[in-house]
Amino acid sequence: MLKQMGVCAKEASRVLALQDGRARAQALTHMADALLKNEQAILVANAQDVANGQQAGLTSALIDRLTLTPQRVAGMADALRQVAALPDPVGLVQQRMTRPNGLRITRISAPMGVIAVIFEARPNVTADSAALCIKSGSAVILRGGKEAIQSNKAVVFALQEGLACAGLPQDCVQLVTDTTRQSAQELMCLKGYVDLLIPRGGRGLIQSVMENAQVPVLETGEGVCHIYVDKSADIDMATAIIDNAKTSRPSVCNAVECLLVHEELIDKLPALLAPVLAKGVEIRGDEMVCANIPQAVPAAPEDWGQEYLDLILAVRVVKDIDEAIAHITRYGTSHSEAIVADDTEAAGQFLAQVDAAAVYHNASTRFTDGGEFGFGAEIGISTQKLHARGPVGLEQLTTFRYLIHGEGQVRT
Amino acid sequence: MLKQMGVCAKEASRVLALQDGRARAQALTHMADALLKNEQAILVANAQDVANGQQAGLTSALIDRLTLTPQRVAGMADALRQVAALPDPVGLVQQRMTRPNGLRITRISAPMGVIAVIFEARPNVTADSAALCIKSGSAVILRGGKEAIQSNKAVVFALQEGLACAGLPQDCVQLVTDTTRQSAQELMCLKGYVDLLIPRGGRGLIQSVMENAQVPVLETGEGVCHIYVDKSADIDMATAIIDNAKTSRPSVCNAVECLLVHEELIDKLPALLAPVLAKGVEIRGDEMVCANIPQAVPAAPEDWGQEYLDLILAVRVVKDIDEAIAHITRYGTSHSEAIVADDTEAAGQFLAQVDAAAVYHNASTRFTDGGEFGFGAEIGISTQKLHARGPVGLEQLTTFRYLIHGEGQVRT
């Protein structure tokens, strides 16, 4: 069954690839209209998911993420319109070369083809993912979690109605309605049909995809982000950055999980941690930290490199910047790492030596985000090095082609 | 055991990433010197491989590819020097943005980290692959075939001697000396240590890697390339391009495997095929072709989409350019596709609608090659869409990092 979806997606992707940017943007507008037109049906379907979720004992946080309201449906439609308004990422000239033999080679951005997205509960991910794929000229196969299956069906029904209004194949957006593990497994192995697979979800999902996929994957997600406060740091600035990076949204991958403080700042620790302590953040510290912060509990070895996604912060005192970089090299996930320092030499060393998608000097790690980077929207944060690092926006959802013009050249 | 190699490679890659371009180029020069210095040992080891190969009944073509001579060793050293002289692909500014909040974001090219290469018989691949990885700032783990194991050991010994002379860790270049299937399998699953795996070899190897790898892979290789001769084509030009694309090196992936000819040119078929027929190319044609070319044999269904890598050419008559594009869409491998046409509209349609790494107008498919594209050297031809398409040169062996400078910005 999934193979048939692959065949249909491939076919639809070819039609989509022949549309110009304006036609793709118009399709998104039609899809937004269709979402609003189908609001009632979407809310009814969603109510069913919510009832099922409550019966199944989902936590209130999960129920909240699952629940749609007229406002949230309007938000989904708005997001589609915002993506429609972004610059067209397809057909951009990336490189031009004329070779000594006269061949003129042009490298231009091109649609990926068929993108598959495997995700978990939130139904807005369905519309967001579809929008980014259509805008970048690719067909998409969506496979959401069983918790949101009725909502996803209703949303995809609406999106397909929008595609039809725009005169595009409905198979540009398809939903896998079988939510068993088996269907995810099959999707990961649709060689020749899926050009790119993006998992969006927790660690278990990502790992399963990395281990089992036979199609190209963009790994997203895990962020064990550090902030190193250098001895030269402006303490007020460091305090504000730590507070923002830990507490503004602790559940996301660009939140800080571990703070490294230069030993000369040991007496500043209470000041650095005052705002987060006031907000109820649990501090798991090394000996030096525990000796100076009464509320701190001793960190266990597994606290280093831990992605809490919660109001918990591991804190360690380091003797110098080299020890800080060594800690990050060992425990980081190459997502986002920051130094707070007035000393530009220290900052330069940190930016040169830390290998991560985003390396910050005097700013919060929370900025690693497609919107904040000016990409307009994103489908996730890549933590691999192949193809894309950091926020995956429209540009990162495209590939390229070389177009070569000759006058009969042959190779000697 | 392989995990330990992964640990050492990661460690070495960190040291290598801190070197500037000049130091990496110098290391390659030392490695070239060391190859020449170790010429005798390399030839002795190679003679052992050749003797083993003859005993094992390898074909003379394989024996030829395996055999090293003083000239070929000198060629390997020259290739290292040529790579050394290429522009440094690391640390290039790819993008600069200043955000409304004042954050300054710079995207710069960066080493991939650890690259693994699994390849088959030819020992020169060992030195070539190592050179491209070191030049682009990455450590490399090489896993060659058992046929060349003694040669590979001797070559890697020399390369490591060169690294040591340059003051770099020898683990920047490591060889997996266990040539069982098990070692390849382990290498494909070295998650957290291998940032990129590149298979270089035949279809069986590539498929096995695609199916089993748990680390990011760059798929290379299979090329079912087509040439479509439009009714507007200059027949002399088309004839020369067909000859070049088929016979200049039939065993490589950018050689043409299938010719599509517009039906209005049916009487030109003998002229179009005269040079390849004279060179002994077997023509497997459809009915129209067989009716017009006495030497042609009827094509079986499996001839369409077949990668012969030999002096065989499938030939089909199509009724128009749409049928040609549909054939390529169905049977091509998105490698290299060409149209020969004087009609610029037909050429434009072909270039717009054919989805391949390289799409040619009036030139031979044989130009899909790192050297011919001006990349200086390549590690293979990518047939996937993620990260790199077409020739994989130094640029394609790098990733990037975002460096972000702020003045205490936090996210609201």
* Approximate strand percentage of chain A: 15-25%
Strand/helix succession of chain A? HHHHHEEEHEHEHEHEHEHEHEEHEHEEEE
Total number of strands of chain A: 16
End-to-end Cα distance of chain A = 48 Å
* Shape annotation of chain A: globular
Average pLDDT of chain A, to the nearest integer? Answer: 96
What is the CATH superfamily classification of the largest domain in chain A? Aldehyde Dehydrogenase, Chain A, domain 1
Helix content of chain A: 40-55%
Explain the overall architecture.
The structure is a homodimer of 412-residue chains. The first copy, chain A, has 412 residues and is of the alpha/beta class. Chain A is built from 14 helices and 16 strands. The first copy, chain A, has a 7-stranded parallel sheet with strand order 10-9-11-8-7-12-13, with helices on both faces. Chain A is globular and about 65 Å long. The mean pLDDT of chain A is 96.
Layout of secondary structure:
Two copies of one chain form a homodimer.
Chain A: H1 2-17, H2 21-37, H3 39-55, H4 60-66, H5 70-85, E1 93-98, E2 104-111, E3 114-119, H6 124-135, E4 139-143, H7 149-165, E5 173-175, H8 181-188, E6 196-200, H9 203-212, E7 225-229, H10 235-247, E8 256-262, H11 269-278, E9 282-285, H12 287-292, E10 297-298, E11 312-318, H13 321-331, E12 336-340, H14 344-353, E13 358-363, E14 381-382, E15 390-391, E16 398-409
Parallel strand pairs in A: 3-4, 3-6, 4-5, 7-8, 7-12, 8-11, 9-10, 9-11, 12-13
Antiparallel strand pairs in A: 1-2, 2-16, 14-15
